[in-house]
Amino acid sequence: MPTQKIDNVSLYYELQGSGTPLVLLHGLQGDSSNFADLVPALARQHQVLVFDQRGSGWSDKPEQPYSMALYADDTARLMDALGIERAHVLGMSMGGMIAQEFALRHPNRLNGLVLGCTSPGGPNAAKLESAARERTYETAELSAEERAYRLAEAGLSQGFLRRNRQVLKQLTEARRQRPLDVNALQRRMAAIDAHDTFDRLGDIQAPTLVITGRPDSIVSADNSTILAERIPNARLEVLEPAGHLFWLEKPRETLDLVLAFLGERRP
User: Which of 103, 242, 244, 257 has the least C-beta neighbours within 10 A?
Assistant: First the structure.
């Protein structure tokens, strides 16, 4: 199992394909397996790096405060260790928050930026209150089946979930293989609560694609509009109907958007 020590924290990673590097950043409860359906197609044109962030999956879960700045620096240092000077960066949900911070802290390491179903955070973000969202953010110990069901219930459109029960099995297996550590989850949620790039978004210079599903019951899709309006020359794409986990509902459309965008930005 490939791992790399970053600041005495062991991070699990996978590196596939060849071409312009592309780094994928997963969300709050996710891990690198979240991108399993996308990586094979992406790796035909790019060298794709996926990894479990500290506090997630098969990576270490140190008992320390987490922040988006720390996660952004972890990403840059992992790139250093693997000999990746510059890359496209794609982040989903919390991964999109890390990607924003990476773009601000390491602008010279970035070719293109893709932000999926994410938020600028802070008081200017579009708020969303829903029972399904609160159930998804439960920090008590839950079985793999219950954790996966709550994520699917909130993250997928109901029509899709009824027609595609195999996705629920996929999410459940991911939780069995890489159990969620609730203490690390709380520290990751604290990092989300402290995230706020609203006033700094104008400093992002990398070409940016913003993608969201609508309706999104976890992160309001209105946040993607905010990001696209405040990041210079950003482009917004909305997939409908699709929930928070839009790349699971519409993998072909997601790949088409991402590959076309990255293809326009060959270094």
Answer: 257
